[in-house]
Each structure stands twice: as structure tokens, then as C-alpha cells.
Specification:
It contains six helices and eleven strands. The protein is an alpha/beta fold. Helix 2 links the parallel strand 4 and strand 5.
């Protein structure tokens, strides 16, 4: 059986990003859906089949997936096995080739962060280090060195989680859309909240990137990915590139080199 199309599935706590890749390892289709821990394998098979049909895409012949939301990963693997005849390769710190995880407990690193390691390789041609800022339920700062070295990083609360906690504890504050206001000084409650949650968050990202760079012995390129990345595009001064498919592309390249 041919190996392509290749299905890549990145399962996060809030959303799941799905992509199909061709023989040249290029992503031809991508989708973002909500992660639901209650959905069963048959439901997931119907969802995948519907996405392929809507896009006019061929069903996959191989699959690679990473998951930080058990048992969703297992359910995707079951759906692919039962309904598509595909045995998915599930990413973990123990089954990757030529990867150096330089942590106190190497097996503890999340699968999505290992995918970012592979996705960031193209940026390391001209830099000694890369910092991937992955905006999800949490915001991960993954520090990567040449030679597939995962050096560590920072875990911070995600912007939406911060907003939800604020709204839950302050009953009179309205729920708002996380988007940048026109000015930092808000003249109404909505704009004041947007300033704090978007501009304030961007300053946190910039500050952490400056600290990380100051601790590295060489230059580091910063790449943003994840659902919130586009909201802060152009606001964060320390981010060099925005790459919304970095994790998916890392999954594809990881699968090709396993």
C-alpha cells in the first residue's frame, strides 16, 4: 500500500489540528477542530470522512499523531485502524530517532513539543538556536538547538485560560473577544480588558524571549505558532516568524525520518 496521502493529527487540550501531506511532504489540506474527550472512535471516523469529502481529498494511507489529551489520541488511532485500515505512528520521547532531550526527565516532554523540534529545523540553517512559542491552552516556549536538541523551555498560562479565569472570578466583567484594541489606554471596559489581555500578554512573551535569549550562548530565532499567534502578530517585537503549520509540518517530517 502506498504511504500517501499521509494524515497528521496534532491533538491539543483545546483544539486538534489535522493535515494531509503528499509525496513531497507538503501539506495539501489543513483543518482545526475542537478537542472533545467524550467523542468515540466511530464519531471521529465520521468527522474525518466528512472533512476529506468536503475537501475532495483522498483518504489517508498512513498516519502520524501526537496527543496531550488522552484518551483522544487512542480514539483517533482506533478510528484510523477500524475504518481506514491505517496503523498510526504515535509520537513519544521514546520512539524518535537521533533526538537529544536534555531535560532532567526526558520522557516527560510532551509529544507536541517534540513535533515543534522537527518543525523548527528549517529555521536553524542560519541560527544556532530556535525558540518556538506555541500558543495553545498553555503557551509553550520550546528551546531547540541544532542537531535535534531539545534544551528545555517555559510553560505559561494560555491567553484564553487567563481570560476565562478573570471572567469567572469577576462577575461584573463582560466576556470579550481576544483582539487588540486601537490603543493601550482603554476608554471603556471592553477595550481595557483587551489591552490587558492582548497587549499585556504580548509584553510577557517579549520579556520571556529576551530572558531566554540572554541565557543562550548563540543567536536564537523565535517562531510563533498555535491558535493565538495571529492575534499577537505584529504586536510582539521579539518574534521573527509566524508559522501556523509548524507543528503539523514537524509531525510530517518526523514521520519521514523515523
Amino acid at each position: 500500500m502506498p504511504a500517501f496521502p499521509l494524515l497528521a493529527v496534532d491533538i491539543g487540550n483545546t483544539s486538534t489540528v489535522i493535515g494531509l501531506a503528499d509525496e513531497q511532504l507538503n501539506l495539501t489540506h489543513t483543518w482545526r477542530v475542537r478537542t472533545n474527550r467524550d467523542v468515540l472512535p466511530d464519531d471521529l471516523a465520521l468527522q474525518l470522512s466528512g472533512l476529506f469529502t468536503l475537501a475532495g481529498a483522498q483518504a489517508p494511507h498512513a498516519a502520524v499523531l501526537s496527543s496531550v489529551a488522552p484518551p483522544v489520541g487512542q480514539n483517533y488511532a482506533l478510528a484510523l485502524r477500524r475504518h481506514f485500515g491505517v496503523e498510526a505512528f504515535e509520537v513519544s520521547a521514546t520512539n524518535l530517532p537521533d533526538v537529544r532531550v536534555e531535560l532532567d526527565i526526558p520522557d516527560a516532554v510532551g509529544a507536541d513539543r517534540l513535533c515543534n523540534l522537527f518543525g523548527a529545523e528549517r529555521y536553524l540553517a542560519q541560527h544556532e538556536y530556535a525558540v518556538v512559542v506555541d500558543f495553545g491552552t498553555s503557551t509553550n516556549f520550546d528551546v531547540i538547538g541544532r542537531g535535534r536538541r531539545f534544551l528545555g523551555g517555559v510553560l505559561a498560562t494560555g491567553a484564553q485560560v487567563s481570560a476565562d479565569a478573570l471572567f469567572a472570578r469577576a462577575a461584573k466583567l463582560p466576556r470579550i473577544t481576544l483582539q487588540a484594541p486601537q490603543s493601550a489606554i482603554g476608554r471603556n471596559t471592553t477595550h481595557a480588558l483587551q489591552s490587558g489581555l492582548v497587549f499585556g500578554y504580548a509584553e510577557m512573551v517579549d520579556g520571556l524571549l529576551r530572558r531566554i535569549r540572554s541565557e543562550l550562548p548563540g543567536d536564537a530565532v523565535a517562531i510563533a505558532t498555535g491558535g493565538f499567534a495571529r492575534t499577537i502578530e505584529g504586536i510582539c517585537r521579539e518574534i521573527d516568524h509566524y508559522d501556523e503549520t509548524l507543528t503539523l509540518r514537524g509531525l510530517v517530517e518526523l514521520w519521514a525520518t523515523r
